Amino acid sequence: MSSIPAAPDDAVRASIHDRSAAFLDDLVEWLCIPSVSADPAHAGDVRRSASWLAGKLTATGFPVAEVWETEGAPAVFAEWPSGDPDAPTVLVYGHHDVQPAALEDGWLSEPFVPEEREGRLYARGAADDKGQVLLHTLGVQAHLAASGRTAPAVNLKLLIEGEEESGSPHFPALVQANADRLACDAAVVSDTGMWSGQTPTVCTGMRGLTDCQIDLWGPDQDIHSGSFGGAVPNPATEAARLAARLHDEDHRVTLPGFYDGVVDLTDEERLLFAELPFDESAWLRTAHSHAALGEAGYTTLERVWARPTAELNGIGGGYQGPGGKTIIPSSAQLKLSFRLVAGQDAEKVQQSLREWVAASLPDGIRHEITFWGATRPCLTPLGHPALQSVVRSMERAFGQRVRFTREGGSGPAADLQDVLGVPVLFLGISIPSDGWHAPNEKVELDLLMKGVETAAYLWGDLAEHWRPQESALPGPRTHSKPAPATPAPLSQEE
Amino acid sequence: MSSIPAAPDDAVRASIHDRSAAFLDDLVEWLCIPSVSADPAHAGDVRRSASWLAGKLTATGFPVAEVWETEGAPAVFAEWPSGDPDAPTVLVYGHHDVQPAALEDGWLSEPFVPEEREGRLYARGAADDKGQVLLHTLGVQAHLAASGRTAPAVNLKLLIEGEEESGSPHFPALVQANADRLACDAAVVSDTGMWSGQTPTVCTGMRGLTDCQIDLWGPDQDIHSGSFGGAVPNPATEAARLAARLHDEDHRVTLPGFYDGVVDLTDEERLLFAELPFDESAWLRTAHSHAALGEAGYTTLERVWARPTAELNGIGGGYQGPGGKTIIPSSAQLKLSFRLVAGQDAEKVQQSLREWVAASLPDGIRHEITFWGATRPCLTPLGHPALQSVVRSMERAFGQRVRFTREGGSGPAADLQDVLGVPVLFLGISIPSDGWHAPNEKVELDLLMKGVETAAYLWGDLAEHWRPQESALPGPRTHSKPAPATPAPLSQEE
Description:
- The first copy, chain A, has helices at 10-31, 43-60, 130-147, 171-177, 179-182, 225-228, 235-245, 267-275, 280-286, 300-306, 346-360, 385-398, 413-420, 445-465, 468-471; strands at residues 64-68, 75-80, 89-95, 115-117, 120-122, 155-161, 186-189, 201-206, 208-217, 223-224, 309-318, 327-328, 331-340, 366-375, 378-379, 403-407, 424-426, 442-444.
- By secondary structure, chain A is α+β, with helices and mostly antiparallel strands.
- The relative contact order of chain A is 0.18.
- Mean pLDDT of chain A is 92; it is low at 473-494.
């Protein structure tokens, strides 16, 4: 890991400077399109947004820029071959749809009429994700201008989906169906953020997810707690027992085998996390919570970024109206979500849960478990050479040491890792105050331009320092069946 | 306990026989009044029912028969002094209101047009409770006719409330306000049943009840389980933990002190319960349940009749809609009811719960407990001389040995014990198939006449064999404050 930021490139900076006004004009134009994927009334706007982007990518120089239809909103695919047969292939991921927004939600200016105030551009989608997608247009232009190349140093591909804010319902199928054209050596996800403007960071992984509902049935109808109380099993009590027994006293998940294979934090990563200027009381305010609580032996950041969890999302059973009702309920229900980390396999967790629930319930309680789906975790080890390229590029752009984070949530990035069998890198410049999904979303223009600069360095750095075949995953994944239980090693170094 | 039923009384039987047709005509007339207390549309019918009963009691010979107003539906009070200064005073409790009923619920005949079929009288209220109230009119008449007395051998009082099917909201206040006029040596509750027509039984106690709601709050709003999962307390999980920890592996309640002072079953009572022809699979069908489960070391009957319980009546928190939602909920809620037995005090249980909940919850979870109220348990020991009178009277009427039950539910009978400070006796002839609260409610006419006969024997037997002062509670209760924690001893024998 370099500890002294690499030197910036005057030519790159000059090129970005020359084109920055036009770039911002483009961004403003795009932000005016209310591409709200969740609202059918904006379906036309989402299509318009896709066309606009495809046109812009063509204008940028991409020889291929296509709108890809899905069963829902369209995605945009673009490709710019390097010309060098040994060059790595990189696929940039982002999305062009946005969250809903209305002035009356508390915006100080119209959400779809971008307004610049004090170095910030306010608009829905400014940070999530149009700004972070568009930075790649100026990024590749600066890369070419500064290097004198006519094509990027890597084979550059972009896949910008149109349904991310609606849960990416058709994204896995889209990736599956186009796996050949999307084939690459790494994915670069530009849909995340950094620790802060003062502390630039690179995200190295996201947690996976599997969630489910457990229905429990006891008596065939609600029965009188006086006549029968204390003598028959109560499904609400059994639901509560399942939820309660899912963790031990140390807040560790008790499902047999749950931690088997978990890729634990390295000492280096724990040290790096610990160096971050973390303010737990500020974090608690963000969490709208009044105390921290979690797995013994780990810090709050480690718990949300790097440890698997079981969380009770909802529970219900029996009487929930006003006052009391002295019944034994006939049924109850749990909603559980499990965040998974590298080394865990959703199918194994599901199977363990099935067996554990069946073994936990007494006679007289029927049950059914429904899993809603599974998103795999992704993790790129600190020592991975492609990750090192991202770090070096950011350090050149920011002129300071770059640190590391992870993302506790789960997202479609994992589908890229999973279906395409490649490591996922994160290049994001948004910061927590950017207000994703909230009123007055904004992007910090200085950070946005640092992101452009990072992208401009990245393609050359990757081509120069990375030999994908030396750190590749062992062979392409089979696309028609689930990926193997344990993520393949992404690097020999770790 | 007598093991040979006492001889019946030919004079009593002849008197009942002579008057039975008129008695049944009266009952049919009363059952035609749809005194549904829960339905405001029937408020006039409930009043009409009260007036009808007061008139009938006057016609029976009661020198005092009054309609007592409450803030809800009216009750009926009647009194017939013995004239003997040493005679015990007995207060009969029942109710003249009924559950709703409509032909389309599955009745074979109009619920308020009584119909006799195969020795059964079908009508709403036939068993619950008009039949069992009215039996006391013919009962006292037969008692007088057979004994040649002009006033009963005991000072006889009746209190027949009009809101039992609506939860008796004004009953405790009514009893409190009229405690002087209701003063007695024992209450006789005629609002329960027997094991079966073949196995006549006397109920010796009812469980008490206190129920509550526990609200828990964690984050100020639902938060993202990816961003924060595993690092802050989850109020739904904490609600589940409370519910789960409320019982140990033996299904005993874990609240500190919960079993302190509990009057345990005597060996004699356990033996007597065990002799009852209990069919657990038939009982499970009644319970609409598929397995029995409860406190280790006790049978099903012991669990529902004589053991205190904690039951989860409802639980709710977080997302309960279709599909999944990966949140940490901001709040959750439990509804708990505790059935109490003699020796337990609702206030102590409430206080223990308050302390236990406060000590169980982690930092970051706020909570609030709301108790809905408390009904005390009541229990009359097998050896109590007034209970022996009931048993002897029933054995004379039924010509067979009488066994014992208890009632798992809770009811206003406990208010009589509590406010008036007297033992509660149960004289009921209804059987489980009578269909209380269900379509086609009926009373078995032969059992009803056995009930009349029991009542006819009871007053003379009590006057002859019971000296209340020798088995009285120690001094009158103070009516304006809660009763003491532990039920006062009802008898020196036990």
